[in-house]
Amino acid sequence: MTVLVALLIVVGVLLIWRGRHFYKNAGMSKGQIIYMDTHGNGRVVKPLFSGRLGLTGKPDYLLFSKGRYIPVEVKSTPMPSTGAYLAHKLQVAAYCHLVEEHYGKRPNYGIIKYDDGTYQVDYGSDLEKDLTDVVGCMRTDMSRKNVLRSHKYLKRCIACSFQPVCGDDLTS
Hints:
It is built from four helices and seven strands; from the N terminus they run αβββββαββαα. By secondary structure, the chain is of the alpha+beta class.
């Protein structure tokens, strides 16, 4: 019984250390994690929904700090030398939009946590317009009978959920 109690204390200390380590390495200000997508490793969280753009999504983390909601997307790859991929910025912009519509407060920024650093995505009117434009293009493509692939990367093609039915895949 004593061994079990000691083990639980050690596990508790490790979990606290891991949480503090996450904040420190993420370059984030301290705040309360109010939402966490566990990716199947715990309780399923309800996705956020935007009626205006017809988007649904789950940021990896949603922090509440100094009266602001901050979406955080965690990537397992190193940060690109350019700072962040446009697709990653748009993903965080989508989370900012979802947060604004869900909580009624517009985030000033979101965070991309790469394996080796962080990138702050400022959520301004230009990025919001880019997001709206991309979503509009996606809606147009969804109504088309045939849409050609928009990439040349085999890894992306192999990981695509449409690859088995795509007539334009790179694997054949």
